[in-house]
Amino acid sequence: xxxxxxxxxxxxxxxxxxxxxxxxxxxxxxxxxxxxxxxxxxxxxxxxxxxxxxxxxxxxxxxxxxxxxxxxxxxxxxxxxxxxxxxxxxxxxxxxxxxxxxxxxxxxxxxxxxxxxxxxxxxxxxxxxxxxxxxxxxxxxxxxxxxxxxxxxxxxxxxxxxxxxxxxxxxxxxxxxxxxxxxxxx
Length: 186
Description:
Layout: H1 2-19, H2 28-35, H3 41-61, H4 65-77, H5 85-110, E1 114-125, E2 138-148, E3 154-161, H6 163-184
Antiparallel strand pairs: 1-2, 2-3
Pfam families: COMM_domain, COMMD1_N
Protein name: COMM domain-containing protein 1
InterPro entries: COMM, COMMD1_N, Murr1
């Protein structure tokens, strides 16, 4: 039974590497040849489908370990298409190892827009202006580092804000924070 459990864990690991970590070398044929060479093709395809379904269920629910325990127990009690106790243990071991990394991969795949990487600022006095009364007024100079999707390099956006504009931006950010807090309360 130990070999069977190790093969099941290996299959889960291989599917995770292919699906979430981008390892293109792991094919169905490779998994069958390495882990289940004696298994008939139809049985292997059913096992592959079952394992993919188990992983997708865990990922889509972002299961914590209590949920995983309940899920694994329910899978062992299924009459058709269920898993054995040993496979449930391997499923738990797999999820403990991969949960956080798979979560990070899924989140990064979902973040397709620009990301704010860094904010820096300083206060300067205006030395030139269209109107004399604007000279020597404090001005916030803000620099935003924005990363576009998957790209590693960042673009920098710089702009100035006077006290009035800065107050409006701060109030808008406070409103955003209130909305987020209202939605996050349980």
